[in-house]
From TrEMBL:
GO molecular-function terms, A-Z: RNA-directed DNA polymerase activity
UniProt xrefs under PANTHER family: ENDO/EXONUCLEASE/PHOSPHATASE DOMAIN-CONTAINING PROTEIN, ENDONUCLEASE_EXONUCLEASE_PHOSPHATASE DOMAIN-CONTAINING PROTEIN
UniProt superkingdom: Eukaryota
Domain Reverse transcriptase: 1-113
Keyword terms: Nucleotidyltransferase, RNA-directed DNA polymerase, Transferase
Protein name as annotated: Reverse transcriptase domain
Length: 170
């Protein structure tokens, strides 16, 4: 039985309350709504994989006790390293007996993270989104439509500004 619909404004808050007692892990946990990120550092990839696999096991046990499921097909990993060649390495991680796919630029909360943290792919995506939305505003401002200034401003704020501002501080 679902008490709160998916997409409800209460869903992220209730999920955070529901999972606020999540067990201690060696990794740092970043949680928002139903997205959980585990971040850790180690002196070797072997140690890193050991820590993350142990923490994934802890999280899976916790989720199981609260009737939640971790979907290994939606779970990805990425390695950040000062040496770019080393960060190409794929981590050997498992969740529920399934190997977790390594990605070069996974998306987390709408941000494309790349292994060197340049955010080039993310910024390219934002640029394309803004270009498309700006074209819509241009069409509204065209001579045939004769939109009023306040309608254009509201539309621009809703369509363009919101997309450009999202995660801008990052």
């Amino acid at each position: 039985m679902n008490i709160v619909d998916q997409g409800s404004v209460l869903s992220p808050v209730l999920f955070n309350v529901y999972t606020s007692d999540i067990m201690n892990t060696t990794s740092w946990k970043f949680m928002y709504a139903d997205d959980v990120g585990l971040v850790t550092q180690a002196e070797s990839f072997e140690k890193l994989e050991e820590i993350l696999n142990e923490d994934l096991s802890i999280v899976q046990t916790y989720f199981k006790s609260w009737h939640l499921t971790l979907n290994p097909n939606k779970t990805t990993s990425i390695a950040f390293h000062l040496n770019n060649r080393e960060s190409d390495r794929k981590l050997n991680l498992m969740a529920q007996g399934v190997y977790i796919q390594g990605e070069d630029a996974p998306k987390y909360l709408g941000i494309k993270l790349d292994r060197t943290l340049t955010f080039k792919q993310h910024l390219e995506g934002v640029k394309n989104k803004l270009k498309t939305r700006n074209n819509i505003i241009s069409k509204l401002a065209g001579t045939n439509w004769r939109c009023r200034a306040n309608v254009l401003r509201t539309s621009a704020l809703a369509l363009v500004y919101s997309a450009g501002e999202y995660c801008a501080p990052v």
